[in-house]
Design goal:
Blueprint: H1 8-11, E1 36-38, E2 40-42, E3 68-72, E4 109-111, E5 118-121, E6 124-129, E7 135-140, H2 154-167, H3 170-175, E8 179-184, E9 189-194, H4 202-207, H5 214-217, E10 236-242, E11 246-251, E12 271-275, H6 280-288, E13 294-297, H7 300-305, H8 310-313, E14 317-323, E15 330-335, H9 345-353, H10 357-363, E16 370-371, H11 389-395, H12 423-435, E17 439-441, E18 444-446, E19 454-459, H13 465-477, E20 481-486, H14 489-497, E21 503-508, H15 519-522, H16 524-527, H17 541-552, H18 556-573, E22 576-578, E23 580-581, E24 584-590, E25 593-594, E26 611-612, H19 614-620
Parallel strand pairs: 3-12, 19-20, 19-21
Antiparallel strand pairs: 1-6, 2-5, 4-5, 6-7, 7-9, 8-9, 10-11, 11-12, 13-24, 14-24, 15-21, 15-22, 16-23, 17-18, 25-26
Helix pairs in contact: 9-12, 11-18, 17-18
Length: 624
């Protein structure tokens, strides 16, 4: 449970945060032709912490070790899914990866939850950056060890990064396209080389990747699903597990990196246990019974109505609304543009007009959410008003190839009268459908081809059905046939990987420093890559060009401009029905935890920075 680059999705700040320039370095006696030596890397400014920092400001360095954190999986990376697992290699496409495996591996560097784009040494005690920023020499700490006691070497680093580029999950392969190669220079120096046209953030993505044991993987198939835990060097190792039921991790008592500044005050639980559920009801019942001791709530109705049970009333269970400084998640129902019924943007816009957010928020979600309008989650990156001169400079070359709306006020979802079936909005939707060449045949709306306009909402959970059903009722009023299909998590993941769906939900953590990670979401290459997150099938030369700009800009001001330009293109494309967000995390927990006095700027810190409080646990009779 570390706050680092590999848990960034859980923080809502994006797994693939960006960086380029190492602006603060250790003093050197004379210039080195291999470049300046530095203890950290930052994108657009100075590192916030000095070379001799003792720990991150938001941790309690005196936090005790012990007890158990037991929870349900709430975030996924790589090949993981929420309902089951059948492999302990989470970094490839094959299989359903087990929760928590990232805590068994260390990376070269670790991020700070107080900084949007900075990393500090973990396996690497320093790095030399060549003047052209195409070569990074990571010097490994001599004490770095795998769990079997063998040293972590430069050969292990080279093996790990090269195999992730060639055989890793498509996400990693796509984002490592600018990695020219990694070599070992002796036992303790890993030389990472990038292509001349490297993106701005690829080296920090590399610095946050897991490092594997080359010897352990010798003779094993890296791309296969395996139920044997790969050898790691992180603060936890795999403990007991039951396939598809639970997986438990145990703190490594002699963890080599326990006293590093990036680890002090973290990794406090003796055991971390993830239990799998196919439905939220049994998970919540297990929480109420104390079999889970931490629970994050995502349903406003449950938060308002379901927490009146004895343990809450007598104070053994606490509720908290934790301010979350991380960018809010970007979530919506995405159209699969590979399907012919969604080819015309007027049809996609008409479907948007059938979703009544105001009624849904008031009636189902206790008015606790705000409507998403943008593909970006910070004020600086969200498009507003008409494009300014800097945005126009990026957009004008594509004027003949993009919708004219790109050059006006950005598209926003309609605001209803809150009735659940706003007649004015439905009339406008009907006008759009007629303009697209659709025709009515009794109660059925037909496409210009003569086929009925019909589609399926695909999901792996019924949790959103109360929101979908009123949406579908409005679609029926327009003559559109829509159905819902709930499939098991493994089938759902497989169908998303192969883009076998009509409409589905995707939620993405926002980013404070958007970068090359956006290619996995919106590029034409990703649209053609099975397993990518471009589930909508967005394929646009204009968008590809702006993504390239975002990947290479050198100042935050230029990044903000490029993101606003991309936001205009994406919103004009009508690729989704945007959903909703809130800026607080709703958590409930049994009163057995201690918490730091300070919170990170870009995270709640829960539960990764918490610890087991033995006195509190004894008071309420809970064993750790």
């Amino acid at each position: 449970m570390r706050i680092n680059r590999r848990t960034a999705l859980a923080l809502g700040s994006g797994l693939l945060g960006a960086a380029v320039e190492a602006r603060v370095g250790l003093a050197a006696a004379a210039p080195d032709p291999r470049g300046e030596r530095t203890y950290g890397l930052s994108t657009f400014g100075e590192l916030a912490l000095p070379a001799d920092f003792k720990h991150f400001p938001y941790v309690d360095p005196t936090a005790p070790k012990g007890g158990e954190l037991s929870l349900q999986i709430t975030n996924t990376i790589g090949n993981q899914n929420f309902d089951t697992f059948d492999t302990f290699n989470i970094y490839v496409l094959q299989g359903d990866g087990a929760a928590g495996m990232d805590a068994t591996f260390d990376s070269l560097m670790s991020g700070s939850a107080d900084e949007p784009d900075a990393m500090y040494g973990l396996l690497a005690q320093s790095v030399r950056v060549s003047p052209d920023k195409l070569t990074y020499r990571f010097a490994l700490r001599p004490q770095a060890r795998f769990h079997d006691g063998s040293p972590v070497t430069a050969q292990d680093v080279a093996f790990s990064l090269n195999i992730l580029k060639s055989k890793g999950h498509p996400l990693f392969q796509l984002l490592l396209r600018d990695l020219a190669g990694v070599d070992a220079e002796g036992e303790r120096t890993a030389v990472v080389r990038f292509t001349p046209k490297r993106s701005r953030d690829v080296h920090l993505f590399v610095a946050g990747l897991p490092i594997f044991s080359k010897a352990w993987w010798s003779g094993r198939n890296f791309q296969a699903a395996i139920l044997e835990a790969p050898l790691g060097s992180g603060p936890y190792r795999l403990g007991p597990f039951e396939q598809g039921q639970y997986v438990q991790f145990e703190r490594v008592a002699d963890y080599w990196g326990a006293d590093l500044p990036v680890n002090i005050g973290q990794n406090n639980f003796e055991r971390v246990r993830y239990t799998y559920y196919r439905d939220r009801t049994p998970a919540f019942e297990d929480f109420k019974a104390g079999r889970l001791n931490y629970h994050e709530e995502y349903t406003a109705k449950f938060w308002a109505l379901s927490y009146d049970f004895p343990a809450v009333r007598d104070g053994r269970v606490k509720k908290a609304e934790l301010p979350n400084g991380a960018p809010h998640a970007i979530q919506g129902w995405y159209f699969n543009l590979r399907r012919p019924q969604f080819a015309d943007p007027r049809i996609r816009e008409a479907i948007n007009y059938a979703f009544d957010f105001e009624w849904t928020n008031k009636t189902i979600m206790f008015s606790s959410y705000k409507r998403l309008v943008s593909f970006f989650s910070t004020p600086e990156t969200e498009a507003k008003g008409k494009p300014g001169p800097a945005e126009l400079k990026l957009l004008d070359p594509w004027k003949s190839q993009v919708p004219p709306e790109v050059f006006g006020d950005p598209w926003v979802p309609p605001v209803s009268d809150g009735s659940g079936s706003d007649r004015a909005l439905l009339r406008h939707a009907n006008d759009l459908l007629m303009a697209a060449g659709c025709k009515r045949d009794g109660d059925i709306l037909k496409l210009p081809s003569g086929e009925p306009l019909a589609f399926e909402f695909l999901d792996s959970s019924p949790m959103l059905q109360p929101h979908v059903e009123p949406f579908q009722a409005n679609l029926r009023r327009l003559g559109i046939v829509s159905t819902s299909r709930i499939v098991d998590a493994a089938q759902y993941k497989s169908r998303l990987n192969t883009f076998d769906f009509d409409v589905t939900v995707m939620a993405l953590g926002g980013s404070l420093t958007p970068g090359d990670d956006l290619r996995n979401l919106y590029s034409s290459q990703a649209a053609r890559t099975p397993g990518s997150s471009n589930i909508a099938g967005i394929s646009s030369p204009a968008i590809d060009a702006i993504l390239d700009v975002i990947g290479h800009v050198r100042t935050r001001a230029d990044l903000d401009v490029a993101c606003r330009a991309l936001d205009r293109l994406l919103r004009a494309g009508l690729y989704w029905v945007p959903m909703w967000y809130r800026n607080k995390s709703l958590v409930a927990y049994w009163d057995v935890f201690g918490r730091p006095g300070a919170e990170p700027k870009y995270s709640t810190g829960a539960p990764g920075l918490w610890w087991w409080d033995a006195q509190k646990a004894q008071k309420i009779g809970m064993k750790g």
